[in-house]
Amino acid sequence: MNTIVRIRQLFRRESGGSLVELALVTPMIFMLVAAAVDFSRAYYLSMEVSGAAQAAAAYGVLHRTDTTGIAAVASADAPDVPSTSLTVTPSWGCECSNSTIGSASSSSTCSSTPSCSSSTLVYWEKVTASVSYSPVFPWPGIPSTMKFSQTAVMRAAN
After folding, report:
1. Can you give the pLDDT at residue 51?
2. Angle of helix 67-77 relative to helix 17-62, nearest 10 degrees?
């Protein structure tokens, strides 16, 4: 009987319970922190690309044909984005101020200037900046490479 009492007392002790709980919870906490870091990096990269497109479009309105300068401004505005992975695609044109880009009264590169009867001629610069992002950790259901792309359009009166 004495042996049975000792065995019961041995199983009632809780001296290693905290260590077991820590061993079970630590991987989950690590995964939560890793996911937060990965998605924060992705969001930050998306914001950097958006700002780069805006800055490049603002520069492009003043210097339409300077595609090298437009790309340089985009790279300078996103210093944390590797310049080798940042793709900048500028385009420009002109339109009537009461129309939209791509409509009948809009002209890409202004090769044929649209005739504006009741409005003024407006020049526009459209810049698309894009970058590829690879998460640090592979996550199920999320692609191994994601592409973030932002487009900015600026208009300037003639």
Report:
1. 93
2. 150
Predicted TM-score of the model (pTM) = 0.74
Sheet holding 121-133, edge to edge: 106-108, 87-96, 121-133, 146-157
What is the per-residue DSSP string for 104-156?
A: TTEEETTSSPPP-SSS-EEEEEEEEEEEEE--SS--TTS-SSEEEEEEEEEEE
Structure token digits, residue 54: 């805006």
16, pLDDT greater than 80: no
Structure tokens at 107: 């002209």
Integer CA distances (angstroms), 107 to 9, 112, 129, 140, in order: 88, 6, 22, 45
DSSP 96: E
Terminal-to-terminal C-alpha distance of the chain: 102
| CA distance readout (Å), 152 to 1, 92, 155 | 83, 12, 10
φ, ψ for residue 64, nearest 5 deg: -60, -40
Average pLDDT, the chain: 82
The structure tokens listed for 29 are: 């906490």
Q: Count how many Cα atoms sit within 13 Å of the Cα of residue 108 in the half-sphere of its side chain.
A: 5
Check pLDDT > 70 for residue 158: no
